[in-house]
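Wed. Picked up where I left off yesterday with DUF2304 family protein. The coffee machine is broken again, so keeping this brief.
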Amino acid sequence: MVISLSVILLLVILTVIFLRGGKLKLSHALVCVLLGFYLASSSFAPDIHNGLGSVADAVSSVRP
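Structure written out below (C-alpha cells, as returned):
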C-alpha cells in the first residue's frame, strides 16, 4: 500500500508539473486518468500489480 501511494503521489506531482509547464493539456491528463480507471477494473489489473510489485522489490534491493 505504501508503494502504491508513493507512485500515485509521484504521478500526481509529475502531472501537475507538466500541466503548469504547458507540456500536458488537461484533455490529455483526463484521458490518462480514464485509462488508469479502466485498466484497474480490467483483467490486466493483477498482472500490472504483480509487475509493479516485482519492479519495486528489485529497486528496493539495490544498494548504492
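Quick read: Residues 2-62 form one domain.
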